[in-house]
Hints:
The complex is a heterodimer.
Chain A: H1 8-18, H2 47-59, H3 81-87, H4 105-122, E1 126-127, H5 134-149, E2 153-157, H6 162-173, E3 178-182, E4 202-209, H7 219-228, E5 232-237, E6 255-259, E7 275-276, E8 278-279, H8 281-294, H9 346-361
Parallel strand pairs in A: 2-3, 2-4, 4-5, 5-6
Antiparallel strand pairs in A: 1-8, 6-7
Chain B: E1 2-3, E2 12-16, H1 21-30, E3 37-38, E4 64-68, H2 75-100
Antiparallel strand pairs in B: 1-2, 2-4, 3-4
Helix pairs in contact in B: 1-2
Amino acid sequence: MSYLVHSDDDRRCLLEAVGAESIQDLFSSIPAVLRRAELNLAPGMSEAEVRAHMEALEAANRPLRVNSFLGAGCYNHFVPAAVRALVSRGEFATAYTPYQPEVSQGTLQGIFEFQTCICELTGLEVANASLYDGPSALAEAAFMALRLTRRETIVVSAGLHPEAAQVVETFAAGPGFLVQRIPLDPLSGTTDLTQATLSSDVGVVLVQQPNCLGVIEDLRPLADAAHNAEALLVVSVDPSTLGILEAPGRLGADIVVGDAQVFGNAPSFGGPSVGFWPAPPLICDKCRVASWARQPMSTVAYAIPSPFRPVSSISAGQRPPPISAPTRHLALWPRRSICPYLDHTGLGRWARSACEERIISIVPSPPFRA
Amino acid sequence: MRPFVTGPFFSEFALALPCSAEDFAREMRARGVDPGVPLTRMERGGRPVFEDTAGQPRTPDDSVILVAVTEVNTPKALEAYVVTAREVLEGLRARVAEASI
C-alpha cells in the first residue's frame, strides 16, 4: 500500500472539518502537565547523513556469535534460511489480522497450523492465534484462572522469570488481586509446593518450565498441590524444550503459556516476540459460560485471550478449510470468535510455524516423553 | 566455580563463582566470550531472584551467572568458554592476592 503524506492544505481542511485550530487542540483532553511542549529532537539530516549515522550505530553492535552464552528468557537459536524466505513473502508482511475471511484463507490456514503446532507441543486441545509475548500470555492466563475459580490470589513461583512476574504484578495491581511468592528449594532450585499452604483464596499457581535458573520442574506434584487447593496450575514453558520434555498438558497443567521467540525469531534486544496460550476445551467452555452469564456481550472477549481460529467439524477423515471466524466480529459470530485486541505478532507466528516443523522432526525418539 | 543449584537443567544453568559475576563477565567479554547474564540483572524491585524460605539470599546473587547454551554454540565454543574462564578466574584470584599483600 502506498503512503502519501498529508500536505499543509490537507491538514488545514481536516482541522476545519472538526472545528480545531491546530493539531495541539486534538490533545486538549490530556492534562497539560502530561504533554511535552517541545521534543528534544536533533535537526533533520540529509539522506546521506542518515545513512552514515545508521551505519555508525550498526558498527557499534556486537552481534551474537557462537561465543555468546546469553539467555535469561531470550535465546539465540539457529534459524534456517527457509524461515526468512517464507516470512518475507508479501502476503505475510503485515501484522494485522485479516478481517475478510473470504479473501484471507491462506493467512487463516496458516494461523490454524500455528495453533495446531502449539496444541501438539503442549498436550492441550485449544490454542489461540498468539499474543504479544510470553509474559502477557501468562498474565492473561492468570486472570482467566481467577475468573474461573472466582478467587483473587495469584501464587507465583520464584522460579518464574522476574520480568514475567513483574508483568503479572502490574496486571494484578489494577483490579487489586493479591500476588504471593513461593520460594525455590535452596538446594535443588525447584518449586516446592508440597510444603506450602495454599489459602482458600488462591485461584492460580504460576510456574515456569524450565524455571529461571534453567532447572526442570517436576510438574505433576505441583499440579496435584494446586488442584488439592482447588486452584489451577498455569505453566509458562520454553516451547523449544517440548521435543524432549513431556508436554505440560499431560502432567496436569490446566493452562500452558509461553514465548515462541525461540522458534525462528532473533533475540534482537529482547523482541519482537510472540506469546501463545493453549488450554483444554473444558476450560475454554467454562470460561465462556462464566463470562456469558456474568458479563455484557462486549466483554465476552476477555474470557479467552486473543483471537483463535476454529475449523468446521471434521467428517469422513477430511479436514475442511478453516471457517476462521473473523476476529473482532463479535457481534456477528459471538460463539465462534473471541478477540480482545488486535494481533500484532503475525511475523513471529509465521516464523514459528515455519520453524516448528523442523523442531518436531529432528527429535525422533524423545527420551522424556511418554 | 560450581553449580548454584543441583536440580536437573535444560539449556541453561546457574554457576556460583568465587568472584563478582559482573567482573567475570567483563573479563570474559574482553577475551571474546560473552559468558552469560549475571543474576543481579534479573532482579526486580531490589529483590534477589533466588532466596531461601526466610526470604534471605542463600548466596550473594552478585556471584551467580546464568549460562545459556543452544545449538548455535559449537563444541569448540564450549571449549573456548572453559579455557577462557580458567584464565579469567586465575587472573582475578591473582589480582585479589596482590591487593591483599
